[in-house]
Automatic annotation (TrEMBL):
It comes from Sesamum angolense. This is Neprosin PEP catalytic domain-containing protein. Pfam families: Neprosin, Neprosin_AP. It comes from the Eukaryota. Residues 172-406 form the Neprosin PEP catalytic domain.
């Protein structure tokens, strides 16, 4: 099914395609106003201390701007005021607060993997909503989505803002509310991964759940020493205050405990690009039986310096994760995953109605179910190669399933 569907659309596709999907027939559909973030707090020292902590934290992650861009976007996509994008001097971004990076500047671009070809064809690639006005940040700066006091107040824990919750990492029913449908390869040495990820705007049932489609580059055991590099798109009302798909990155070197964060919300990822805002909304999105849009992502390890670089779209370098952030990933990855993840908080006592991907099962096919296409990994010789020994796994296949094909 996947094969015939995709060959009809674009004969250049020769790699695996995965469809992610969702079922909503037995779960109530909730309507939630995610922008209603104003909260009434009782007066007292506790709230005063909390606000002081929040404002101090904002000073760390919102850096001085040489230019500010207000995203004015149609109300059919974002609120009329949109995101605020600050153009921050490259060497003043949060990464350079790290003791091992203080006083340094971003590195020059590395050698790209052999066999890297810009994607073309009938699939249209997404762009970021904030840049539709044609305004960009100047050379020597990076665009940063400004974090607000309200963003932090929405978090279930102020101290955990910008981080995934600690949870068991096993891909099974013990995953503590996190449910997955993934394709994966393991058992060899991997030095990167590449995929084009279909972008949708799945419904998320409440503020403390999310839905995402991403790549995971993984090393270590699935215990406290887990190292991951992650990139894709996500709908996260808690993190962003709305239900629109946004480009995101993540990293951890201790299984989501004390290290790592989303985007640029801590010292870690070093951004080198002045046109891509990590955490900004993606537009347009795919529609059922309508236009299909995707983003192409490549993560690979620079053979010379050992850092892990990220490319977005057709050859646009976003930046890199310094190798010293990691333990096992300093050397190589031992697993790569492509797929979807949602949070099932069971607020009403039953399974969430939060969707994954398009909100439709894999069997619905192209134009209805969400896909990953052109999946590859980077080998020891810094060459992009097709996947081998691919396996698929869905935690709860009667809610979220996945299929592979070529």
């Amino acid at each position: 099914m996947a094969s015939s569907c995709c060959w009809k659309i674009s004969p250049i596709i020769s790699a695996f395609v995965f469809f992610l999907f969702f079922f909503s027939s037995v779960c109530p559909v909730l309507s939630v106003n995610f922008n209603a973030t104003k909260q009434n707090f009782p007066p007292g020292d506790h709230m005063s201390k909390k606000l002081k902590y929040i404002r101090a934290h904002l000073m760390k992650i919102n850096k001085p701007a040489v230019k500010t861009i207000q995203a004015i976007i149609s109300s059919s996509f974002l609120s009329p005021d949109g995101d605020i994008i600050d153009c921050v001097l490259s060497h003043q971004q949060p990464a350079f607060d790290h003791p091992q990076l203080k006083g340094q500047k971003p590195l020059d671009p590395p050698e790209k993997p052999k066999g890297h070809i810009s994607t073309t064809g009938m699939f249209e690639e997404n762009f970021q909503a904030w840049s539709m006005s044609g305004e960009f940040c100047p050379e020597g700066t990076i665009p940063m989505r400004r974090t607000s006091e309200e963003d932090i107040l929405r978090a279930s824990s102020v101290r955990r803002f910008g981080r995934k919750i600690r949870r068991p990492i096993r891909r099974d029913s013990s995953s503590n509310g996190h449910e997955h449908a993934v394709g994966y390869v393991s058992g060899e040495e991997y030095y990167g991964a590449k995929a084009s990820i279909n972008v949708w705007a799945p419904r998320v049932a409440n503020r403390y759940e999310f839905s995402l489609s991403q790549m995971w580059v993984i090393a270590g055991s699935f215990g406290d020493d887990l190292n991951t590099i992650e990139a894709g798109w996500q709908v996260s009302p808690e993190l962003y205050g709305d239900n629109y798909p946004r480009f995101f990155t993540y990293w951890t070197s201790d299984a989501y405990q004390a290290t790592g964060c989303y985007n640029l919300l801590c010292s870690g990822f070093v951004q080198t690009n002045n046109r891509i805002a990590i955490g900004a909304a993606i537009s347009p999105t795919s529609s059922y039986n309508g236009g299909q849009f995707d983003i192409s992502l490549l993560v690979w390890k620079d053979p010379k310096h050992g850092n892990w670089w990220l490319e977005f779209g057709n050859g646009v370098l976003v930046g890199y994760w310094p190798s010293f952030l990691f333990t096992h990933l300093r050397n190589r990855a031992t697993m790569v995953q492509f797929g979807g993840e949602i949070v099932n908080s069971r607020v009403s006592g039953s399974h969430t109605s939060t969707q994954m991907g398009s909100g439709h099962f894999a069997g619905a096919g192209f134009g209805k179910a969400s896909y990953f296409r052109n999946l590859q990994v980077v080998d020891w010789d810094n060459s992009l190669i097709p996947l081998s020994n691919l396996r698929v796994l869905a935690d709860h296949p009667n809610c979220y399933d996945i299929q592979g094909g070529n």
